[in-house]
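To the wet lab folks,

You asked to see what we're planning to order before we commit. Fair enough. Below is the target structure as tokens, and below that is the sequence we designed to fit it. If anything looks off to you, flag it before the synthesis order goes out.
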């Protein structure tokens, strides 16, 4: 594992799936020496590195309907 890295994709709601996988890694005690994330992947990475199981998915799901968090205006 000393040369294994983890790359986390962005993609908004796709991050909920990634958050679940990272929570499973935390349960299993899996840690990676290298971690890179983009957009939602970076947010998930912060929760994973800080070992806050459940946080990433909770943040995404609680804020998904808030136009300040996700919406067409942000895209434009």
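Sequence we intend to order:
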């Amino acid at each position: 594992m000393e040369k294994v890295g983890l790359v986390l994709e962005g993609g908004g709601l796709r991050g909920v799936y990634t958050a679940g996988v990272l929570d499973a890694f935390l349960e299993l005690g899996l840690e990676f020496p290298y971690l890179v994330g983009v957009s939602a992947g970076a947010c998930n990475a912060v929760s994973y590195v800080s070992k806050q199981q459940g946080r990433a998915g909770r943040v995404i799901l609680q804020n998904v309907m808030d136009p300040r968090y996700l919406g067409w205006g942000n895209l434009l």
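Structural context that might help your review: The chain has a mean pLDDT of 86. The beta strands are 5-8, 34-37.

Thanks,
Computational group
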